[in-house]
Description:
This protein is an alpha/beta fold. It has one domain: Rossmann fold. The chain has helices spanning about 15-25, 30-50, 90-95, 140-150, 165-175, 205-210; strands spanning about 1-5, 10, 55-60, 65-70, 75-80, 100, 100-105, 115-120, 130-135, 135, 160-165, 180-185, 190, 195-200. Strands 1, 2, 5, 6, 7, 8, 9, 10, 11 and 12 form a ten-stranded mixed sheet that branches. Strands 3-4 form a two-stranded antiparallel ribbon. Helix 4 (about 140-150) links the parallel strand 10 (about 135) and strand 11. Helix 1 (about 15-25) packs antiparallel against helix 2 and helix 2 crosses helix 3. It is globular and about 65 Å long. It starts with a strand and ends with a helix. The mean pLDDT is about 95. The structure holds 1-O-pyrophosphono-5-O-phosphono-alpha-D-ribofuranose (PRP) and uracil (URA). Uracil binds near residues 136, 196 and 204.
Amino acid sequence: MHGMDLSVTVLKHPLIEHKLSILRNRDTDNKLFRATLEELSYLLVYEITRDLALRPVQVETPLAPCPCQQLAEQVLLVPILRAGLGMVAGILNLIPSAKVGHIGVYRDETTLQPVEYYCKLPPDCEAMRTFVLDPMLATGGSLIHAIARLKQRGLHRIMVVSIIAAPEGLSALQTAHPDVKIFTAMLDERLNDDGYILPGLGDCGDRLFGTL
Length: 212
Ligand code: PRP
Ligand code: URA
């Protein structure tokens, strides 16, 4: 792991670099894109869950009793629709007990402002360890809006998991939510005039769902 400052961590790993090269490639088809995003999400979450709380349990092996440890806290995944959906399955493979809430936000194509159209969270989720999932952190508007909505609903243990971030969006997100830790696989150069990340990977939702 490579820390940039207290709230942003760019996760460095050869497998992450390799998979990013597949995701970025314009010739990667929808099927491989989906599989690779899933694998990358799995790798990121493996890295950032090192501090999850454990509780002692006694297990009987075929040979003897054995003191073991099991997860003691409830994890909540909140993908931002649509592209965040592509991160859920990989993480659920790793943490099958995680609950999943959904928040639907799209960027208005002209203003780039976030527009919310859906929000469904599990009951009693306020104290859960919450990972907000969005592969693309561009202007930061979508994540800033989604996190504000989650805070309004009482959630307060929030972390962001993204794949590619632009410096402009990172700094906007840090300013809006300085208490939220942000994890990303890559910090790219900048946004273009249309608010797309350069070099980026194009439109993530379209590449995931074949709506290009
Ligand atoms: C994309 C992406 C992020 C958002 C990032 O969503 O999935 O949610 O843009 O941009 P921002 O940081 O400037 O807000 P999009 O609006 O394309 O919706 P979609 O996922 O439904 O395609
Ligand atoms: N959303 C995307 O899918 N890609 C970008 O580069 C920016 C926002």
